[in-house]
Specification:
Elements lengths: L3 E3 L2 E4 L4 E4 L2 E4 L2 H12 L7 H8 L8 H14 L9 E4 L3 E4 L3 E2 L7 H25 L9 E10 L1 E7 L5 E7 L2 E7 L6 E3 L7 E6 L4 E6 L3 E7 L2 E8 L2 E7 L5 E8 L2 E8 L8 E2 L4 E10 L2 E8 L4 E7 L4 E6 L3 E10 L2 E8 L2 E8 L4 E7 L4 E9 L4 E8 L2 E7 L4 E3 L8 E3 L4 E6 L6 E6 L2 E4 L7 E7 L5 E8 L2 E8 L4 E8 L3 E6 L5 E8 L2 E8 L5 E5 L2 E8 L2 E6 L4 E6 L4 E6 L12 E3 L3 E8 L2 E8 L5 E7 L3 E9 L2 E9 L3 E9 L2
Helix pairs in contact: 1-3, 1-4
């Protein structure tokens, strides 16, 4: 028998599913494995370390994984930690399963049910592994000799190993960044004296340390003890850098026109020119394998991911397709091996990537709610250091609403559903992104799309439909979910450079903005027949329609315009010199006027412009780490919804691999 029951909940381990007669929940495979293990050892007090060692003996996993798994289980099974009926927390010891298994029609014993459930979990994992091996990907685990963890309050954004095998890292404190030296033996941190306060990235060679510091412009400095010599100043937005071993070349990741580009600069030339590598899409994470060979991650316009190799001698690029998506870091390990972070088949991990033949091996699993912010390899000992950032996010509101929703996720994007007084948001708490709903303190998952990312959520004016765009695999989709039928009624693939903006006033069309050359055009997508029509050139960000025409933001005029059904166009508001934050969540149109987000003296200000009175009224001022996701009125009173970063903590984890 492959099913057991906990109270009214039906647990199906082989499907990673927990269900009630009228509700269904999916558990991330690791969460289901932990639930199965607790059930199997009913009545035993199990520490987090015991659970991890039993289920994943050859992997380096954070104890926090068990904490979050138990939180997930309790949420779904309605188990209050203060008055538990399933899982009891034993302070400073661990967890014990105290629940009763309802056999219902089954005649099997509790022990048999428990063993079978564990067996099913193991079999599912076996078939998962075999399936990936048949696809030519080796998912074996890489054992480690030692694991050293060092926690830091605040944000670590970059790490590097210097020529003395010491670890350098940047640490953000309040609004400025500092440079620290981490002693791998004593695990003590020493703050280095420097006038640089906006350090974005660091990179060390066998001889020197290079520091990227960005204020109004980005500058690169060479560090020699306490001396910082300027090497290059560039009026571009640089994300990270890499230096060739002979220190002749800089490789820079530069962001331009919402794209990432890799550029090369000669350090030896006094008047160095920037040479951009040819590309079709986006390029990230440059790293030199040797003096003449630069590797980086290339993602084409159709979202296919490649490991690209640029030869500085021949000026030729070769690429190999990668099965990993959402790559967040790349570092040279040895020979033809690299350390890479990303997702493969829904599994986030730190991987050892072998190029020829292509294979992946798990070094350490990464919790979906964590972010790897830096990788550094100590080549003499083959020790891998990586920094993990924990950034709890909550949904909060101001004005006519007052709420705080805690939910483990990297991205929430909360929207308020006025009719049901509920919040709709996206989350990756189970490892893949889904649409969730919070109502009266209860959270439930609405979709089972298993997306790798959800980009936008929109609610129509009748409050009966939700539109959202998401990426799954290498393909971008736009979907419509019916809150009446609790199902997806429309789902189409779309261009990867297209962005969902809004419903029209009839809820039969969706407005989308789609890249055309270097501009974006405003299009209308009909939900019934899937036809697409062009509305305006070089337009987007915000749209709304009524019976007489359509409102939209014009990039050409930096203004909000109204185009009537007869074709005439009127300018309603000029945004020039308003320091508007240009993104889809920064403007929301209503019948009376529109909300918009701007910056004044580094503060975020939410204002409302009234179409009738033509008066702008500032409404709210919020902190830099508060990200507005929705605006609106309730009984003429304004409200805003925002995601907020809580206190950020980081860990440096050091792993020495078994040879």
């Amino acid at each position: 028998m492959r099913t057991f029951y906990l109270a009214d909940f039906k647990v199906e381990p082989e499907k990673n599913k927990v269900s009630l007669p009228k509700a269904e929940f999916r558990l991330e495979p690791r969460v289901m494995s932990i639930l199965c293990y607790l059930v199997e050892h009913q009545g035993e007090v199990l520490s987090k370390e015991q659970i991890l060692a039993a289920l994943w003996p050859n992997q380096s996993l954070e104890p926090e994984l068990v904490t979050k798994a138990v939180f997930e289980i309790r949420k779904i099974l309605n188990d209050n930690p203060k008055t538990p009926h399933l899982i009891e927390t034993i302070p400073r010891k661990g967890y014990v399963f105290i629940g009763k298994i309802n056999l219902q029609k089954s005649k099997l014993s509790t022990a048999s049910i428990s063993l079978i459930s564990i067996f099913v979990c193991i079999v599912a994992a076996f078939f998962y592994t075999n399936n990936t091996q048949r696809n030519g990907i080796d998912l074996s685990n890489v054992p480690t000799k030692k694991t050293i963890r060092h926690s830091v309050d605040g944000e670590i954004s970059s790490i590097s190993v210097n020529n003395n095998n010491q670890l350098l890292f940047t640490h953000k404190e309040n609004s400025s960044s500092s440079l620290y030296l981490h002693n791998n033996t004593t695990l003590k941190n020493t703050k280095l004296g420097t006038s640089l306060t906006e350090i974005k990235d660091i990179f060390s060679t066998n001889e020197s340390d290079y520091i990227l510091n960005c204020n109004d412009v980005c500058s690169i400095f060479k560090r020699d003890k306490d001396n910082y010599t300027p090497i290059l100043k560039i009026n571009e937005r640089i994300i990270n850098l890499s230096i060739s071993p002979n220190e002749k070349w800089l490789a820079l990741q530069i962001t331009k026109h919402n794209r990432h580009n890799i550029a090369l600069v000669s350090i030896e030339e006094n008047d160095a020119k920037i040479f951009y590598l040819p590309h079709d899409g986006s390029q990230q994470h440059p790293v030199f394998a040797n003096d003449n060979s630069l590797y980086y991650i290339s993602q084409t316009a159709d979202r296919k991911t490649y490991l690209a190799n640029y030869n500085l001698d021949t000026r030729q690029t070769t690429t190999k397709p990668l099965p990993i998506d959402r790559v967040s870091g790349l570092s040279f390990y040895t020979d033809s091996k690299y350390v890479i972070t990303g997702r493969y088949n829904g599994q986030y991990a730190l991987w050892l990537l072998t190029i020829d033949p292509l294979s992946l091996s798990v070094i350490a699993n990464i919790d979906p709610q964590q972010k790897v912010t830096g990788i550094a390899v100590e080549h003499k000992t083959k020790t891998i250091h990586y920094a993990i950032q924990n950034r709890p996010i909550t949904i909060q509101s101001k004005g006519a609403l007052s709420t705080k929703i805690e939910h483990p996720s990297i991205n929430l994007d909360g929207k308020y559903h006025i009719e049901s007084k509920a919040f709709i948001f996206n989350s990756n708490r189970s490892g893949s992104y889904e649409i969730w709903l919070e109502s009266q303190g209860q959270q439930s998952k609405l979709t089972n799309i298993n997306a790798s990312y959800i980009h936008a959520i929109k609610v129509n004016n009748t409050q009966k439909l939700i539109a959202f765009s998401y990426t799954k695999g290498k393909t971008k989709h736009i979907a419509v979910y019916s809150l009446l039928n609790n199902t997806i009624i429309f789902d189409v693939t779309t261009e990867n450079d297209s962005y969902l903006l809004n419903f029209d006033h009839t809820s039969t069309n969706l407005y989308i903005s789609q890249r055309a050359a270097e501009n974006y055009d405003l299009l209308s997508l009909n939900i019934e027949n899937q036809t697409v029509s062009k509305i305006a050139l070089n337009a987007g960000i915000a749209t709304m329609s009524d019976a007489n025409g359509i409102y939209y933001y014009s990039f050409s005029n930096q203004a909000l315009q109204y185009q009537t059904n007869l074709g005439t166009t009127n300018t309603l508001f000029d945004f020039e010199n308003k320091a508007l934050q240009i993104r889809a969540s920064s403007i929301k149109l209503t019948k009376e006027g529109f909300f918009y987000l701007s910056k004044i003296n580094k503060q975020q200000v939410i204002s409302f412009y009234n179409f009738n009175s033509k008066i702008t009224k500032p409404l709210f001022m919020i902190k830099p780490r508060q990200f507005v996701t929705d605006f609106g009125f309730i009984n003429s009173l304004p409200y805003i919804i925002f995601d907020e970063d809580a206190d950020v903590t980081s860990q440096i984890i050091s792993l020495e691999l078994v040879k």
